[in-house]
Design a protein that fits this description.
The protein is an alpha+beta fold. It is built from eight helices and eight strands; from the N terminus they run ααβββββββααααβαα. The strands form three sheets. Strands 5, 6, 7 and 8 form a four-stranded antiparallel beta sheet that branches. It has a two-stranded antiparallel ribbon with strand order 1-3.
Length: 342
């Protein structure tokens, strides 16, 4: 690219120098002054201008993302049989020219918004589904030119392959495929199936014309305002039904929770009652066992009860007076003789 520009720059310089030298040559000739040196320089400038012009016109640099188709009057059919790959090439000046075709990936978009499409205006595809609903499909075709078939593409379509091939073929295929499905299937359940079928058919058409389909993107699907409103109302009704169902389930859960709490409290009361009954039974058994032991101890030692009675009296009591006719709960122990005297 820079080499071609350099040759064309020098060609321009030599042509300018040639015009200047010619003007000076004419002036000196009218003045009847020597023109030998100027004539020599003019010839050199003419030769240099012609050489650089011819070389600059014959050199062609093909960018790495391009292929070149050579249009010639010398070859059969007006084309060279092989395209020019990326790099610097030589063509016959003034009888051959190069048409450049991009081999990088390109995207052709068909959208409802005018600024999103490849051309001004609305390019979205209007189609009818199996159940008669009108929908609008926005899509993008990502493709690339097959480098080995660029000459075939040039012969068939030149640079019109997007407008005259991709656009009409994609619209027709989208309409045909969409017409085989219901609107709910296109939108949700079988959207991927629809996309795959469109891709398959579009890939075959592009391959027959020297193009390779990289991907087909189903960008958006919109409806008529009436159908969109009906869908919105249906969704609102479904959401309300779900909300009502949620409230019912919530009430059921609250009722179940209350039942479980009541059941738990009842079970706790039963467990507590059983525990208290068992505790009373254990205490009764313990008291009975204690009374049994006391009875056995008293039977073995009758004076033990009297001793316990006396030991409970206050420590400072030495003499206790009671009426003579008062019956004793417990008989006083018989004092041995000699003890009272003390």
């Amino acid at each position: 690219m820079y080499v071609v520009g350099l040759f064309r720059f020098f060609a321009t310089v030599f042509w300018l120098a040639l015009f200047v030298l010619l003007a000076l040559l004419i002036v000196r000739a009218f003045a009847r002054r020597s023109t030998k040196l100027l004539a020599s320089l003019t010839i050199v400038a003419l030769i240099g201008a012609l050489v650089f012009t011819v070389v600059g016109a014959g050199l062609v640099f093909i960018e790495p993302y391009e292929m070149g188709v050579v249009i010639t009057v010398l070859g059969r059919g007006g084309l060279r049989p092989e395209p020019l790959p990326p790099g610097l090439h030589w063509i016959v000046p003034f009888v051959e020219r190069v048409e450049r075709y991009p081999i990088a990936r390109q995207t052709f978009t068909m959208a409802k918004t005018p600024t999103e499409g490849e051309w001004e205006g609305e390019l979205t595809v209007e189609a009818r589904t199996l159940d008669g609903q009108r929908i609008f499909v926005d899509s993008s075709v990502i493709y690339e030119i097959n480098p080995r078939r660029v000459i075939e593409l040039h012969i068939k379509w030149q640079h019109r392959y997007e407008r005259d091939l991709i656009h009409p073929e994609a619209r027709g295929i989208i309409r045909d495929v969409v017409s085989q499905y219901r609107v709910d299937e296109v939108v949700s359940t079988k959207r991927f199936e629809v996309t795959a079928e469109i891709s398959r058919r579009l890939e075959e058409v592009l391959a027959d014309n020297g193009l390779t389909l990289v991907d087909f993107v189903l960008r958006d699907i919109t409806f008529t305002p009436e159908y969109a409103q009906s869908i919105e109302q249906k969704q609102i009704a479904e959401q309300q039904a779900l909300q009502a169902k949620f409230v019912v389930e919530q009430k059921k859960q609250e009722a179940e929770q209350a039942r479980q709490i009541a059941q738990g409290q009842a079970d706790a009361a039963v467990i507590q009652a059983k525990g208290e009954a068992e505790a009373r039974l254990i205490r009764a058994r313990a008291e009975a066992e204690a009374l049994k032991l006391i009875a056995e101890a008293l039977a073995a030692n009758p004076n033990l009860l009297t001793y316990e009675y006396i030991s409970k009296l206050a420590p400072g009591v030495r003499v206790m007076l009671v009426p003579a006719n008062t019956p004793f709960i417990l008989p006083l122990p018989q004092m041995e003789e000699g003890v009272g005297g003390q």
